[in-house]
Amino acid sequence: MRAFRVAYDGRPYHGFQRQPDVPTVEDAIFDACRALGVCDDDEEPTDYAAAGRTDAGVSALAQTVAFDCPDWCTPRALNSELPGTVRAWAAADAPDDFHARHRPTRREYVYDLHAPTERFDDDRAKAAFDACRGDHDFHNLTPDDHGTVRSIDGGLTRDGDFLLVRVEAGGFARELVRRLVSLVRAVGSGAAPLSKVDDALGPDPVSYTHL
């Protein structure tokens, strides 16, 4: 078993996870493995797993994928068959029971929002984000019915006309990060009152479209 760190420019892809009839990052990785003979045509590498998924257009600096492969299957070998938008930049041998999705203890997403200060209130956005930090039931910010209690950390950083929103957790429910960041952005821009955060974190169901 070998674990690889992979970076990619997500703009040409319809997300990380393989989908029918559209290009994905996972397709590019599988195609490279097939070209190298790591797996047969129309198959994925043995015991393959990825640490997480990203949406269409989202890029990554340190995605982790792991699978069984020969010793000669190095980042350099993978890169010889990967497109320029996907690069393997590190690898390490892993125990046979290593699982890239279940083993990680921390995941981090960073959203780079165009939010000029003349149209955006950083203090309001920070207050919204801080209210979401810690342990909460995020059932209103995910379509999932289970696993909605999460412990969120991170912070906001101003960089000129852009606001970087960093969200960390051991794991995320589906669409949680995107919806949380959208809520923070709505509060910071004035499109939603700060009370919407309390509504989202409260026990009563709230339609995400109204956040």
Automatic annotation (TrEMBL):
Substrate binds at Y109. Its EC number is 5.4.99.12. GO terms for biological process: tRNA pseudouridine synthesis. Keywords: Isomerase. It comes from the Archaea. The active site is at D55. GO terms for molecular function: RNA binding; tRNA pseudouridine(38-40) synthase activity. SUPFAM superfamilies: Pseudouridine synthase. Gene3D superfamilies: Pseudouridine synthase I, catalytic domain, C-terminal subdomain, Pseudouridine synthase I, catalytic domain, N-terminal subdomain. InterPro entries: PsdUridine_synth_cat_dom_sf, PsdUridine_synth_TruA, PsdUridine_synth_TruA_C, TruA/RsuA/RluB/E/F_N. NCBIfam families: PRK00021.3-3. This is tRNA pseudouridine synthase A. It comes from Haloferax lucentense (strain DSM 14919 / JCM 9276 / NCIMB 13854 / Aa 2.2) (Haloferax alicantei). The lineage of its organism: Archaea, Methanobacteriati, Methanobacteriota, Stenosarchaea group, Halobacteria. The gene is truA.
